[in-house]
């Protein structure tokens, strides 16, 4: 399916870049109104949103200083990253988007969240407003009154989230830095700076593949834009293979500082961050610098950016110049790194002040009207704060609620079941015993699921034309085309992050990380985002993502290509972790993983890819969390998984043949959820246990199994549990050292004899 040749283009040439406009917007509010680009009502709403934001942030400041006491004894303990000074960016940007467009936000995101909700509500009709207000859609009512009521509830839910209350947007699980509201396309604030960039790209790609016109606005700070994931995300979004462009707008909210480190002259080498657009595609991502102190400049820019995205010309990059009046947080007095003169110069161009003047000059509002609006917004926000402070805490017994959906997609909606293919999928031929290889079971499972549901897409490094480093996905591209099977840049973090973002807007991505050794590159996206987004956002997000990856070992690939890092992945609540040992299990478990509505890390083993097993051609599913007894026995329980299952089974045969010991061999198949019941049942029968895994002993998953056995079957144990694992060293290259490092049947036999008291 090779489409584009890459011949040597070695002719001398000078590569040039185009121009990046800076603060080019030069229209007035009067002109915008006269030309019909913005109506007076919208202009008033824009000012109102800026006032809501400033009033909200001021309330947090006064909660901390003790000036505002919503309820006697109330203590605000959450984050205090206030955005006073930056209102023009949040309000201007969100005013330019459609209510159902998506945003991702930052740790300084109260303003984004308030603005997103307010502007989305302006577009809501009576039934939608009623739904937002938790009433039957057909309850009726006067639209204006419902809208004002909805605004109040929006402020209340925002405050309640910051106060950690059950009525908060995320049921008090996310708070200030992780607020999200999926009803209005707010996909979440992020306390990992830059952490949302890849998710925004994934959401944009996903929304496009679902056939919507939705645009995703990715808000990031100037400091965050130096983080690797931001650059990975820009590159990912700019890939030529996205035929219709990626409908994402990156908006760098440049308030001049990270925490305290300043962009200009210190932590970057460019005067304007928008210059970086030139590094990602020939359109320079349509980069522009906007005047972030003028909401109209931001509104105009984001509006044009959104239009470009909807025309298939994304991605787009904007930098909005702005300033935060407070410190990084309220514990930062900001005197060590800023001058009073500098602060004053920005306050002189304050966005609320400037825009109010324009509204007055245009005759849309009077000075009294502006003042009254400010007072009303403060009162409304404080009233919402008082109600939120009085509202109920989350219920302690429900502490784990929202972590996993524990649901599956058992019926594909008709609109997604109409899959078209470029050619008939290859039938994987069984041998005379009905067997196929483990790697073929992978391909068969993905093919079946992609045929079933067009929301399933598959991408990763080298997976398309080449079929993956281990040839597990050969042929998928020819069947499903590049729209659904594509190569990703070598950006592991971005691969996982985009999958999370795409899933949050309704796709069901399967992605591949070639070696589990590369999973640490993804750790933020896997552990902080994919794993947490459901819980942190109040149990509202569904994250049906499968990250396929592989363990190696035994091939002389040494420290960075032979590790067994599965235990690391079990340490992030919110992820399911599967590690099949046979082709039969691969097919059933991978299909279940793809249908699962929670994120699954699916760990294959490179040394099993060519092993064969009987695999039915017809469809079957294996539920996650059900162990399989691979060999029955009464004397000792051996628990293992993945490739080490072969070692365990061979040891069991030796124990039987040479020592008359009958081992029961159990393969949990999924590590999370772990079938503790099956293991305990076996231990209650045998009283003796040897656990086998190829990870270094300290912190390996077998330690967790051992703990579960002690917890649940201590009285049945006749001897301490033994673990056969690798040495506490990185995998060595030398053949003799690597062999010594890994569990072998004789080592397992020895451990079993020890626990049986025979050594
Ligand atoms: C990955 C990561 N590194 C460091 C931090 C600590 N931290 C929190 S906010 C911040 C500054 C971020 O600067 P910027 O992106 O410009 O956003 P701003 O605070 O200015 O809005 C830092 C360093 C973090 N939260 N995440
Ligand atoms: Mg900043």
Characterise this structure.
The chain is of the alpha/beta class and 759 residues long. It folds into three domains: 29-394, Rossmann fold (3-Layer(aba) Sandwich), CATH 3.40.50.970; 414-614, Rossmann fold; 628-755, Rossmann fold. It is built from 26 helices and 19 strands. It has a seven-stranded mixed β-sheet with strand order 8-7-9-10-12-11-17, with helices on both faces. A five-stranded parallel β-sheet has the order 1-2-3-5-4, with helices on both faces. The N and C termini lie far apart (60 Å). The model has no long low-confidence stretch (mean pLDDT 97). The chain binds thiamine diphosphate and magnesium ion. Thiamine diphosphate (TPP) binds at residues 106-108, 191-193, 221-224, 255, 257-259, 328. Magnesium ion binds at residues 221-223, 255, 257-258.
Short description:
This protein folds into three domains: 366 residues, 3-Layer(aba) Sandwich (Rossmann fold); 201 residues, Rossmann fold (3-Layer(aba) Sandwich); 128 residues, Rossmann fold (3-Layer(aba) Sandwich), CATH 3.40.50.
- Tell me the CATH architecture of the largest domain: 3-Layer(aba) Sandwich
Small ligands present: thiamine diphosphate, magnesium ion
CATH topology of the largest domain: Rossmann fold
Query: How many structural domains are formed by the residues?
Result: 3
What is the CATH homology-level superfamily of the largest domain? Thiamin diphosphate (ThDP)-binding fold, Pyr/PP domains
Stretches where pLDDT is under 50 for at least 5 consecutive residues are none
Q: What's the average pLDDT?
A: 97
Q: How many strand segments?
A: 19
CATH class of the largest domain: Alpha Beta
Radius of gyration: 29 Å
Beta-strand residue fraction: 5-15%
- In order across it, which strands form the biggest sheet? 8-7-9-10-12-11-17
Largest sheet: 7 strands, mixed
Question: How does the overall form come out from the CA principal axes?
Answer: globular
What share of the residues lie within helices?
25-40%
The first-to-last residue Cα distance is 60 Å
